[in-house]
Amino acid sequence: MGKLTIFGTTFEKNDFIGYGKDNEVEHQPLFAIKDERLADLSIKNLLDKYRVDLFDSYLPYLSKYAVDFEYGGFMCNAYPNGSRIDTNKRAWYEGRGLWVYSFLYNRIDKNPVYLDIATKTADFILKLKPAGDVFFPSLYTREGKSLSNGEIYGDLFLALGLQEYSKIPGNEKCLDEAKDILIKCMRMYDRPDYPGKPFLQNAPVIEAPRMLGHWMMMIRVATQILEFRSDPEIETIAARCVDALMNHHYNYEYGLFNEVLNHDFSRPDNMYAQWSYTGHAIEVLWFLFEEALRLKDVHLFNTSAERFMRHVEVAWDSVFGGVFRSLDDVKKNLWTLDVVLLFQVEALNGCMLLVEHTGSRWACDWYAKFYNHIQSRYEPQKAGYSPWLCTGDRANTPPEFSAPRIGNFHYPQSLMINILSLERIIRRGGKVSNYFK
Q1: Tell me, what's the pLDDT at 297?
Q2: Do residue 150 and residue 80 come from a single domain?
Q3: pLDDT at 56 over 70
Q4: Is residue 164 assigned to a domain?
Q5: What is the rounded distance in angstroms from the CA atom of residue 328 to the CA atom of residue 82?
Q6: Looking at the domain assignment, is residue 132 inside a domain?
Q7: How buried is 264 (Cβ within 10 angstroms: 0-12 exposed, 13-18 middle, 19+ buried)?
């Protein structure tokens, strides 16, 4: 049958049916082996399932329990059955929700209801913008009164939402708002007094840390801005993120990313050297797939794919299924043993991109594993109501023990990303893309 080496691993030739000589994607049939099926569903049926989950389940649930139609934004501090804890709002969920409804309107369905939700959220956010090098407040009342100081993740999610909202005609000025937030975050991140804290139990404080999760969000914002408009400043930030992730956070000793580095990018000489937050690594690696596609950089795509495969296989729970989010100590093999929805769908997203652009047998098989795990573990009808559960333990404890939070980002994002990929595959007649030809 013969062998083929791709992503640094040797496969049988029919494992990766989309790659040809010199690792260039050829326009060949994607499902020559799988009979045009993925996760044991036809591509059309899988697409239909995702559209039902998005339009008939998740969006009505968000409208009923999370969307604030009066003041704008999202009230996500509630149990999965919609029972509200309070009406406070958090910067993370404002930016995430703004991205979801803007992306939904831009790419999936130009329903004026989605535009209205996005517009009211953007207006609510911009009224909270602080002056100078200060983060947006992290928490505020339903009406917009600040309840706490901010941190970088909140600002970056707000920038993510604003840049997508700016792609709706008439809102172009919000792209400059998003750019200003991103550049401010990078400026603050580079300061030697950037706030540190202990990130693991009984761990020391890292002064002005370099965090994989921070690069993760910055590259996502940067590359989505660059998708819309060329900008040398944002190109520089994107390139810095790629370098930090691929050349500094990646630990060659054990082939995983470290979450935390010192400010000068040296590896800490303490317990952080053994910490790999595998959930963040899996998530950011598919962001790097998209950046490689934008740049038409086959080396970045292949290296990111190899590392993605490694993290997925290391983090997989071979007993109960799903990937763990945090390997707290590599050498002792100590894991945080919860299994959360967001990292399952982020892994699904990465597998889908590999399916679409390589035709990888590995990606098809692992896509099916994640799809089946998500459907069996988080399917809302099994819980007797409409949400998709955000968190739980690895043994699938009943949903009343799930975290008190309505997720308004990761699952609807995954549904939309997979819908778009499946539609592109169908338009190509079941063939891989030719991005790297």
Answers
A1: 95
A2: yes
A3: yes
A4: yes
A5: 33
A6: yes
A7: exposed
285 & 349 share domain: no
Q: Give me 362's structure tokens.
A: 């590995």
Q: In this structure, is the dihedral angle defined by the CA atoms of residues 206, 211, 214 and 218, taken in order, positive or negative? A: positive
**Res. 1 pLDDT band, cuts 50 70 90:** very low
* 157-198 residue pLDDT tens: 999 999 999 999 999 999 999 999 999 999 999 999 999 988
297 shares its domain with 382: no
Cα–Cα nearest to 143, from 63, 67, 71: 71
- Same-domain pairing of 183 and 273: no
Q: Which domain holds residue 297?
A: 209-322
Output the six-digit token pair for 111.
Answer: 């329903």
- Give Rg (Cα) of the chain: 21
Please indicate, yes or no, whether residues 18 and 74 belong to a single structural domain of this protein.
Answer: no
Could you tell me if 15 and 361 are in contact, meaning their C-beta atoms sit under 8 angstroms apart? yes
Residues facing residue 19 across a β-bridge: 25
Q: Let me know: does 154 contact 95? Beta carbons within 8 Å.
A: yes
Going by C-alpha positions, the residue among 428, 366, 397, 383 that lies closest to residue 82 is 383
Structure tokens at 56: 């008939």
- 138 close to 150: Cβ distance less than 8 angstroms: yes
In the predicted model, what is the mean pLDDT of residues 51-80?
94
Comparing 381 with 324, the larger pLDDT belongs to: 324
Same domain, 299 and 373: no
- Residues contacting residue 190 through CB under 8 Å, at least 6 positions apart: none
Contacts of 13 (CB under 8 A, 6+ apart): 1, 2, 3, 4
Domain end, chosen from 139, 158, 189, is at: 189
Q: Which residue has the tokens 């090098």?
A: 133
CA-nearest of 348, 366, 370 to 422 is 348
Residue 20 included in any domain: yes
Mean pLDDT value of segment 64-82? 93
**pTM, 2 dp:** 0.92
8 Å CB contact between 129 and 144: no
What stretch of H or E contains 380?
A: none
Element (H, E) at 328: strand 326-329
